[in-house]
Amino acid sequence: MVDSHNHIHFREFRKDLDEVLGRAVSAGLTAMLTVGIDPKDSKVAVAMASSNELVYASVGIHPQMASRFGPDDVYRLEGLCTPRTLAVGETGFDLYRSPQTRNEQEEIFKAHIVLAKRLGLLLVIHDRDAHDETVAVLDESEGWDAGGVFHCFSGDVELARKVVENGFLVSIPGVVTYHNADKLKDVVRDIPLEALLVETDAPYLAPVPMRGKRNEPSFVRHAVEEIARIKGVSAQDVARVTSDNFKRVFFKRARGAEGDHERVHS
Questions:
Q1: What pTM did the predictor assign?
Q2: Which of 68, 79, 177, 217 gives 20 to 30 Å between its CA and that of 189?
Q3: Which of 266, 214, 158, 154 has its CA nearest to residue 9?
Q4: How many whole angstroms separate alpha carbon 76 and alpha carbon 88?
């Protein structure tokens, strides 16, 4: 099983990271993509990927950081990339927490698209309360050409269909286990399993029955089980197909990652 977007906020796991990774292995995970949210965080993500064969990295500057960083800071992330860097981001818009920096968010979003296409890496898209804005930038900047994933998907079925039609994957977080997550459950019901990924967004959004606790990669199985229930298939099938999706998309595009391909399996 692959945790496609393990947004470890490293300070949250500083004291027990080895134990967390050990529990991930015990839960059946064979790979994780850990995502940087600013230059310093991205450097830590790359270092973690370099020292642990379970982990791969994405480098980026979160849209909530748009008041502190600009396009040049995004371009400098190229210097951090290694063969185990699979993606650029997370990037996009967060108009829920930071609506006042909408223009700055668009600037660094476009810079991430340029960087991803330059390096042949995928995009990890953050889209919160900004579906129209996110799609508009991807359309105008030909960002769909980079490929990638809409992480922690929060849109409706119509948006999910557009994302998939443009070659991106839809990543389902532990939110799918929540009682009131009808819209996300509809997305899971409608979108083919071959277009889905599963994630934790650790340390946030812990699934039922772990809600209220610090989220961690091993908890991804609860989202897998809920997706299986919705689709009427086995959890093993969900784990296998979503892991294959990750390999098919991320390792096809990543620089030098083909040599690691066989290390990621269900």
A1: 0.93
A2: 217
A3: 214
A4: 12
User: pLDDT tens digits for 195-208?
Assistant: 999 999 999 999 99
Tell me whether residue 27 is in a domain: yes
113-155 pLDDT tens trace = 999 999 999 999 999 999 999 999 999 999 999 999 999 999 9
What value does the mean pLDDT take over residues 210-220? 96
Distance CA 189, CA 191 (A): 6
- The pLDDT, as a whole number, for residue 146 is 97
**110 token code pair:** 């476009």
Structural domain count, the chain: 1
Yes or no: say if 43 and 11 are a contact pair by the CB < 8 Å rule.
no
And the tokens for 254?
Answer: 């990543």
Q: Domain for residue 265, yes or no?
A: no
210 burial type by CB count under 10 A (0-12 exposed, 13-18 middle, 19+ buried): middle
The radius of gyration of the chain's CA atoms, rounded to the nearest angstrom, is 17
Domain assignment present for residue 263? The answer is: no
Contact (CB, 8 A) for 30 and 218: no
Find the DSSP H helices in 13-101: 17-26, 39-51, 71-75
Q: For residue 11, what is the domain's CATH number? A: 3.20.20.140
CA distances from 129 to 14, 38, 46, 106 (A): 31, 21, 29, 14
CA separation (Å) from 87 to 33, 160, 193, 246?
9, 20, 22, 12
Query: Which residues span the domain enclosing 173?
Result: 2-257
Residue 264 forms part of a structural domain: no
- pLDDT tens-digit profile of 173-202? 999 999 999 999 999 999 999 999 999 999
Q: How far apart are CA 81 and CA 119, in angstroms?
A: 9
